[in-house]
Amino acid sequence: MRVGVLALQGAFREHLLMLGSLGVDTLKVTRSEHLAGIDALILPGGESTAMVRIAAGTDLFATLRDRMAGGLPVFGTCAGLILLADRLSDDSLGGYDRLGGLDITVARNAYGRQKESFTAPLTVQGLDDPVAGTFIRAPQILDLGPDTEVLARHDDTPVLVRQGAVWGASFHPELGTDGRIHAEFLHHLGVAV
């Protein structure tokens, strides 16, 4: 299995390193033709506005939407969650094209500014011990559709969700050395790591 990581901007290196530590073959995805060589994709945290602007005028997001409609598993973290949300609480991305795919509404930067970043223990469905969730200018999931499953909460608010093969996290599971969230995503795809 080869997992692509969207490498337009943000924490893509950290995801590549985490996947590498799990023994997973990876590929940086910057153009639509890279999508043909992957079995799953991670959308990293970073600046969602920068990501949509970089992708604008290319066929990357359109091709990715087609691949997702065909069943490509995708995991979006922080800014990646914003790209996957079917709805935003406002038009803070200026009408730029996003991906959708998760039946959720998200508020950007809802956990505060950079200086209000924090790490909190999260109980994740399927894991025995808590995971340290790092929230940096994180989006908040405001509501979710009936087919969206909550895998973890912080203060009773969903922070890790999945809908079929599409996963989303408000936090950054790639920061630190705990690869269990990435491993759970891969296990859900039938990959043993």
UniProtKB/TrEMBL annotation:
Its EC number is 4.3.3.6, 3.5.1.2. Gene3D superfamilies: 3.40.50.880. Keywords: Glutamine amidotransferase, Hydrolase, Lyase, Pyridoxal phosphate, Transferase. GO terms for molecular function: glutaminase activity; pyridoxal 5'-phosphate synthase (glutamine hydrolysing) activity; transferase activity. It catalyses: L-glutamine + H2O = L-glutamate + NH4(+); aldehydo-D-ribose 5-phosphate + D-glyceraldehyde 3-phosphate + L-glutamine = pyridoxal 5'-phosphate + L-glutamate + phosphate + 3 H2O + H(+). L-glutamine binds at G46, E47, S48, R108, I136, R137. It comes from the Bacteria. CDD domains: GATase1_PB (cd01749). GO terms for biological process: L-glutamine catabolic process; pyridoxal phosphate biosynthetic process; pyridoxine metabolic process. InterPro entries: Class_I_gatase-like, PdxT/SNO, PdxT/SNO_CS. Pathway: Cofactor biosynthesis; pyridoxal 5'-phosphate biosynthesis. The active site is at C78, H172, E174. GO terms for cellular component: cytosol; glutaminase complex. Catalyzes the hydrolysis of glutamine to glutamate and ammonia as part of the biosynthesis of pyridoxal 5'-phosphate. The resulting ammonia molecule is channeled to the active site of PdxS. Belongs to the glutaminase PdxT/SNO family. HAMAP family: PdxT. In the presence of PdxS, forms a dodecamer of heterodimers. Only shows activity in the heterodimer. This is Pyridoxal 5'-phosphate synthase subunit PdxT. It comes from Brevibacterium linens.
